[in-house]
């Protein structure tokens, strides 16, 4: 077998040559290949995706495909999920291994285990707490949830998952995104006083035993740096300028931004809602720039105006890592019978992680 082609050569190729290579490789690989693309991918990559979606839709598509190769144009945790839900029967490839998620990195197994242990000094977590991990997390945290009667959620099913969790135990430990946890729990009627913020840099999460006993949900102090760029004043300004306008935000935005929004939901939900609006509607959208720019261009001919929530350029820098050069490199290698950048979750982690993911997929089915 020939040696794998090196990325260095591809890094020097202009985008149009990569484009031609990607198209040619896709033609040669045919049904052996499926490319999944998250909505935050840049245009030059996104247009090559066979299927696009939010995290939930992409994980379901990965579970259903019978293609031999899944090239995941998204971030690391998404490719891990694809490998887990396919039971290792497909070859999952992440074009650039540096495409991580800074929010996912805010929780790790050692810190979550420490939290669980510290909680056990005050309450009995295995009896009283369901661990719920946002899908934006490493596979071993999903495994932790699988082993402790817990579950995974995404931005589109967080409410149904929390209802499932409260059907089993009285409290939830939610990681790593405090905002998705807080926004969802509040919409379910849990008051802010019954939410405690676990600061993983402090002993006991910086909480008193009383605060832990009283909490219905313990929120990990993680956040998405991209969604931190959207602020209430952006919404106030828009409302002054467009009193009839509509505001739609991703639930990774902070509490105030979500409270001020007319609609809150996943990337897929945002697209669906804006696409269904009538001509003349003016939207302010609080999520990543690549998605918003594409939506803006798509809706302009229909008379729908789409405006990005922040005056600053805020893209997800890790989603942006997947460029045409890396995509062309991975595909040309597949054509040459070489697999590069395969994501493989070890069986000891994948089995319990799959338990937590299967619970989620059952909840939303
Ligand atoms: P969605 O599942 O809504 O696409 O969100 C993924 C994500 O990482 C948002 O920052
Ligand atoms: Fe992670 Fe935020 Fe990027 Fe989503 S937008 S992948 S949460 S860093």
Would you kindly provide a written description of the structure presented here, covering whatever features stand out?
The protein is built from 17 helices and 13 strands. The strands form 3 sheets. The protein has a 5-stranded parallel beta sheet with strand order 6-5-7-9-8, sandwiched between helices. A 4-stranded parallel beta sheet has the order 2-1-3-4, with helices on both faces. With 365 residues, it is of the alpha/beta class. The model has no long low-confidence stretch (mean pLDDT 97). α8 links the parallel β5 (129-134) and β6 (151-153). The protein folds into 3 domains: 8-100 and 318-348, 3-Layer(aba) Sandwich (Rossmann fold); 104-225, Rossmann fold, CATH 3.40.50; 227-308, 3-Layer(aba) Sandwich (Rossmann fold). The chain has helices spanning 7-11, 15-29, 43-46, 55-64, 76-85, 109-119, 125-128, 139-147, 158-166, 178-187, 209-214, 232-241, 255-260, 267-275, 289-299, 324-335, 347-364; strands at 33-38, 51-53, 69-73, 91-93, 129-134, 151-153, 171-175, 195-198, 217-220, 246-249, 263-264, 282-286, 305-308. α2 (15-29) packs parallel to α16. Bound molecules: 1,3-dihydroxyacetonephosphate and iron/sulfur cluster (SF4). Residues 75, 101-103, 136, 224, 226, 252, 288, 316, 318-319 line the site of iron/sulfur cluster.
């Amino acid at each position: 077998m020939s040696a794998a082609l090196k990325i260095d050569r591809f890094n020097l190729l202009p985008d149009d040559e990569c484009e031609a290579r990607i198209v040619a490789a896709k033609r040669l690989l045919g049904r052996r290949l499926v490319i999944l693309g998250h909505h935050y991918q840049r245009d030059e990559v996104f247009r090559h995706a066979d299927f696009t979606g939010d995290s939930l839709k992409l994980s379901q598509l990965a579970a259903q495909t019978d293609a031999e190769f899944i090239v995941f144009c998204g971030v690391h945790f998404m490719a891990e999920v694809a490998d887990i839900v396919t039971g290792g029967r497909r070859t999952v490839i992440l074009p650039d291994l540096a495409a991580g998620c800074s929010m996912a990195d805010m929780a790790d197994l050692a810190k979550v285990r420490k939290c669980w242990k510290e909680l056990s000094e005050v309450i009995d977590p295995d009896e009283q707490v369901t661990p719920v991990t946002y899908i934006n997390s490493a596979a071993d945290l999903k495994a932790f949830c699988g082993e402790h009667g817990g579950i995974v959620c995404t931005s589109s099913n967080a409410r149904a998952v929390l209802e499932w969790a409260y059907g089993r135990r009285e409290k939830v430990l939610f990681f790593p995104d405090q905002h998705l946890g807080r926004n969802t729990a509040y919409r379910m009627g849990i008051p802010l006083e019954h939410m405690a913020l676990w600061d993983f840099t402090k002993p006991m999460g910086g909480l008193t035993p009383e605060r832990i006993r009283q909490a219905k949900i313990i929120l990990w102090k993680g956040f998405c740096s991209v969604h931190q760029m959207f602020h209430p004043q952006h919404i106030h300004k828009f409302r002054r300028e467009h009193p009839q306008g509509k505001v739609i935000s991703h639930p990774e935005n902070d509490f105030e931004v979500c409270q001020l929004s007319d609609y809150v939901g996943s990337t897929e939900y945002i697209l669906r809602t804006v696409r269904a609006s009538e001509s003349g509607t003016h939207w302010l959208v609080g999520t990543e720039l690549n998605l918003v720019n594409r939506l803006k261009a798509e809706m302009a001919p229909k008379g729908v105006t789409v405006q990005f929530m922040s005056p600053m350029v805020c893209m997800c820098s890790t989603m942006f890592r997947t460029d045409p050069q890396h995509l062309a490199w991975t595909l040309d290698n597949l054509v040459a019978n070489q697999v590069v950048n395969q994501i493989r979750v070890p069986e000891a982690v994948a089995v319990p992680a799959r338990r937590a993911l299967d619970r989620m997929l059952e909840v939303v089915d």
